[in-house]
Design brief:
- It contains eight helices and no strands.
- The C terminus is likely disordered.
- The chain has a single domain, classed as Up-down Bundle (Vanadium-containing Chloroperoxidase, domain 1).
- Helix 6 packs antiparallel against helix 7.
- Helices cover about 65% and strands about 0% of the residues.
Length: about 200
C-alpha cells in the first residue's frame, strides 16, 4: 500500500507540476468546474424532452438517479470512511501545490466526486443516447476523463482518487442504465436491438 501511495504522489506531481502551462492554468479551473457545463445539460434536457416527450423526461430522471447514487456513494460513503486529505492540504508531498485560483475545499480526497459523477453521466449517455452517435459517443468518455484530470491538474485530487472515482461512476452509470433499458417507458431508439450498435 505504501508503494501505491508513493506512486500516486509521483504521478500527482508529474501532472500538477510537470504539465504546468499558462494556457492550462487559465482553462482548467473552469473546465473542471461542474457549473461550466450547465448550459450543455440544459440543451441536452431540452432536446430530449422536445424529441421524445415523456420518455425523454423519464430518461433524464434515470440519469439523475445515476448521478445521485454516484454522488452519495463517493461523497458520503467512501470519502467519510477513507478520510484521505486533499493534495492541497497534504504535507508529505515533496513540493507544495500550485495556486491556480481554485479553492482547496474542506472535504476529503478519495474518491473524486467530480470523476464519479461525470463518469456516471458519460457511461449512461454512452450506452443510450450514444447509440445514435456511433463512433462520436467516445467523446463522452474523453469529456469525463478530461474533467477528472483537471481535478489533478488544479491540485485538489490525486490520480488514484480520479481513477477509482471513474471506475465507481462507470459501474453506477452502467448498472442504472441496465435497469432503465428494461422498463416499458424507455426510449426505443436508445435500447431496442433493432438499433445497430457502434
Amino acid at each position: 500500500m505504501e508503494q501505491l501511495i508513493q506512486l500516486d504522489y509521483s504521478l500527482f506531481e508529474w501532472i500538477h507540476h510537470g504539465w504546468q502551462h499558462p494556457w492550462l492554468d487559465a482553462i482548467m479551473p473552469y473546465w473542471r468546474e461542474k457549473t461550466t457545463w450547465i448550459p450543455l445539460y440544459l440543451l441536452l434536457a431540452a432536446g430530449l424532452i422536445y424529441k421524445y416527450k415523456l420518455p425523454g423526461l423519464y430518461y433524464l430522471l434515470a440519469l439523475g438517479v445515476a448521478v445521485g447514487i454516484a454522488d452519495f456513494s463517493s461523497s458520503q460513503l467512501i470519502k467519510k470512511s477513507v478520510k484521505r486529505p486533499r493534495p492541497c492540504r497534504e504535507t508529505a508531498l515533496s513540493q507544495p501545490t500550485r495556486d491556480v485560483g481554485v479553492h482547496c475545499g474542506g472535504g476529503y480526497s478519495f474518491t473524486s466526486s467530480h470523476a464519479t459523477n461525470h463518469f456516471a453521466v458519460a457511461i449512461f449517455l454512452f450506452l443510450g443516447w450514444g447509440r445514435r452517435w456511433k463512433k462520436w459517443r467516445w467523446l463522452l468518455i474523453f469529456w469525463a476523463a478530461s474533467i477528472a484530470l483537471g481535478q489533478v491538474y488544479v491540485g485538489v485530487h490525486y490520480p488514484l482518487d480520479i481513477t477509482c472515482g471513474a471506475l465507481l461512476g462507470s459501474f453506477i452509470g452502467w448498472a442504472v442504465y441496465r435497469i432503465y433499458e428494461r422498463q416499458r417507458w424507455r426510449i426505443p431508439d436508445f435500447c431496442d436491438s433493432s438499433v445497430p450498435k457502434a
